[in-house]
Amino acid sequence: MTAPDINSPEEQARYRRGSDVLNAVDGGAAPGVMASLADIAPALAHHIVAFGFGDLYSRPALEPRQRQLVTLGILTSLGGCEPQLEVHVRTSLNVGLTPAEIVEAFIHAAGYAGFPRAINAISVAKKVFAERDLLPVEET
After folding, report:
1. pTM of the entire predicted model
2. Which residues form the domain of 37?
3. Which residues form the Carboxymuconolactone decarboxylase-like domain (predicted)?
4. At 134, is the pLDDT very low, low, confident or very high (cuts 50, 70, 90)?
5. Reduced to 3 DSSP states, what percent helix, strand and coil does the chain have, rounded to the nearest 5?
């Protein structure tokens, strides 16, 4: 199987669509992530943007807030994804989730993924909330 040519017109169109979506929701963290991959895995950086945001995130069935809740739950459940979770906590705030909603997603995940993973997620959120002066979080 031949890998797709990430420089083809079709792939570049997917990448541009993904970049537009990413720029609308990310708040500026993604370029650093993509740049960190440029000298070792440029195709991975391309696919994250083209597939993750150009194909998946741009689907109309879910609103950005809903997508972020799903993403937070999955990253919490996987564990070991704290750097990616940090990016997505920021993105969640950027698309309008409140700190209380984010915390509630992690509390809910504890029942399915376990307390250690939920605590790790809460620790990541606390760091982001502190940076944005959003502590303490009011429970709902």
Report:
1. 0.87
2. 9-61
3. 42-126
4. very high
5. 75, 0, 25
